[in-house]
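As promised in the previous annual report, we have extended the structural survey to additional targets. Below is the entry for ER membrane protein complex subunit 1.
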Amino acid sequence: MKVTMAMAIRVFLLLLVSFYSIPSFAIYEDQVGLMDWHQQYIGKVKQAVFHTQKAGRKRVVVSTEENAIASLDLRRGDIFWRHVLGSGDVIDELDIGFGKYVFSLSTGGSILRAWNLPDGQMVWESYLQGSVSSKSILCIPSSLKYGKDNIILVFGMGSLHAVSSIDGEVIWRKDLVAESLEIKQVLQPHGSDVVYAIGFVGSEFVTYEINARSGEVLKRTSKTFPGGFSGELSYVSNDMLVALDTTGSTIISIRFGDGQISFHQTAISDLIENFSGMASIFPSKLTSMVALKFNSVIVFVRVTGFGELEVVEKIDSPAAISDPLSVSEGQQAFAVVQNGESKISITVKQANDWSSGNLLKETIVMDQQRGNVEKVFINSYIRTDRSYGFRALIVMEDHSLLLLQQGEIVWSRDDGLASILDMTTSELPVEKEGVSVAKVEHSLLEWLKGHLLKLKGTLMLATPEEVVAIQGMRLKSSQKNKMTRDHNGFRKLLIVLTRAGKIFALHTGDGRVVWSLLLPAFKKSEACPNPTGLNLYQWQVPHHHALDENPSVLVVGSCGGSEAPGVLSFVDTYTGKELDSLTLGHSIDHIIPLPVTDSTEQRLHLLLDRKGHAFLYPRTPEALKLCQVELPNIYWYLIEADKDIIRGHTLRKTCNFEGADEYCFDTRELWSIVFPSDSEKIVATATRNLNEVVHTQAKVVDHDAMYKYLSKNMIFVATVSPKGAGEIGSATPEESSLVVYLIDTITGRILHRVSHHAAQAPVHAVFSENWVIYHYFNLRAHRYEMSVIEIYDQSRAENKDIWKLILGKHDLSSPISSYSRPEVMVKSQSYYFTHSVKTMAVSSTAKGITSKQILIGTIGDQVLALDKRFLDPRRTPNPTPAEREEGLIPLTDALPIIPQSFVTHSLLVEGLRGIVTIPTKLESTSLVFSYGVDLFFTRIAPSRIYDSLTEDFSYALLLLTIVALIAAIFVTWVMSEKKELNEKWR
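The corresponding structure token record, generated without further manual editing, is:
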């Protein structure tokens, strides 16, 4: 009977082990949102059209600088539907027509699309022909028809088109580029069959009268104005326009009706006292009025007759003006939003009658971190007392979107996060005793209910409501949203820099914004008219003083072009406060973080200007002393992609030009590689992550050790023939080839070169340890390919002799110099790949022990995790038993795409631009952050979680199993004793 008891124990142990060791390649439905989060954005709004006429859902349709078209709920700001077009498909015009369609004009006026307003489905798409690029104009007449079909007028690619609203067919086309005519306006007076195309040819003003139904040119009229024209035309009445001369100091009234053109000049100085500078026409569509802007001043000028102008109002503070809105027959209203220090004032005026007072005037408290108002769009509604009320959609300087109504902010969206330029991470504060203590108090009944729910979820017996309850319990108990560090290193801050010059700190737990800061140094001003953020760097990362000092980041930017002075900003990552800012006396062309920190744990940086000088920051005597010690070991390279040149540089002594300080160094060119421009063009480069950790320098191959070539000074460069740099299919296989190089950046020595014939760009690459993987298109096979190159150090082959190691004849820790010519061996292999690629990254862990995964951003805006073992160059069709024991996968011509390997599951990261991996303290796990128009964050375990229990581990089921095992042991023991007693009685 003892054998029976032992067998029972073995059976239960086998069941227990098999239950908890079932491999899982995907997540369950109730696990979504536990380890990942997904946020959707649209970007900075360029145009907005309200749709509130019918009862039901009130919405606003917008187009953005991220080439997105979206329909938003006016009550909450949620996205009804959204389409993100390609990066080259820039949206020029947007409008709603005939109450059911959204029309978008994009790509320089060459693509017109019709979208179904309720659900966003594309109804039709029309490609418009043309020969030159020109201004894009979309005009939707309400009364112009071709038979029973409504006509849409589109000017783009130098031609005027009449397009059917039913199927997008081009009814007629008129080419207007023969005279280099620059069309500024396309007008269709209400109830008329005549279309006016108006523009300039140098100093000549030209109007075309075109039959809207047939496209026939009825009349062409022109007249020369000696002073010439500049800027835009402002349409003020049916037969009158207003323009500015080339000096921007004279207003030109233009009458073009009855086939005659007349000009009238009015000097702006005669209307406005103390006028100076050059004026421009504010892009508004006010009737009988024009808005002029000069020196941040906006002046409204009423046009009472031909050449009769009067100033009605002058606004000295920064302001935004909306397009006019028809509120009743013959009455128009528009909004003016003025910026204050901590508030904004919105005023709605009657465009036709300013003397009757304002229709609305409100003051709203505004967060200073949003900056000034840049754009405003208004919409009207009828109040209960039958009077008109107004709501305003405003776009702020930080690219956020807000809806204002009745003096309050109804909702807001942080759409600046759709334009991330750079990112880094920051650790959270250390949890101090007595400060943050987790207190969880549950009654026994609630505890039992919770575990019963989890058990039902594990057995897939839970209802949808119970699945939601389980997910809420896990989110509450996981403590992933605490603002302190965790022992696994999962909780961090993602510090991101957006195109608006704003920094956001996102919590990795749920993606919420912990703090945000619109950098004062990057706000528009007279001294810095066009500030741009360049990069984000870790400035101070305290380890020894983690309890006393906060980490900080360095934001590097510029005030405009390449020659403009640079701007530095230092930001505390815990509080989000700007510690200091500097406007430099030199430009910034390149930034080199040095692997050296001072006593305060601030990292040293070299800032290179356009003149070849290097400036050291921080500017302290200690930093200067450290830099002088490291001076002989500081090398860098610069890639001039437009000239197809790579140059290597090093530092010399301090600068010797006039006014130079001791923190300035001259640079010296060490080497250069010039690729012949007629045969090779640089299309891609890749380098190793300087912070990458390599677990072992050797790799065992066929029971033999091969040493990895682990130089951090190696760069991957890909070049293609000039014809191969275009779009796929633009070159024949004989005209295109891809050449890849592995180059040592200290000496400029080419370590390896390989050529791929009939290959074409785009090329994407990722570099890690001693291998590089790159993706390109094969023109002969008409398929994408991925190739891998692994490089090994043959000069250390003698280190494999165990007797020399025992006798101390060689030293593995001896330094290796880049100037000693390395003996390298290269292994490579190519595979077919079914997806087009936007970006690539590689997983990273704390110790480098875990297997690597290649994270691929596909053309479908998803992230695919591909095991590095599939890209092993040693794969063969029939591996030997030793290779199979090693884990080598048999060779196939194509790389497998496993649906469960998509890190983003079924979600899309629209407009995917970058993937960043972050190691954690847990060696098996890596954090992945992917960004584009959307944001997505998750955890991955390339070798599965082997060093901890998962968060969804069922402790209740384990407890029940142990209890059942103990009960089984007790029962079998009792049965054994009874049987033994019965045998003794026989």
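Residues 589-674 form one domain. The longest helix spans residues 955-985. These points will be discussed at the next consortium meeting with the crystallography subgroup.
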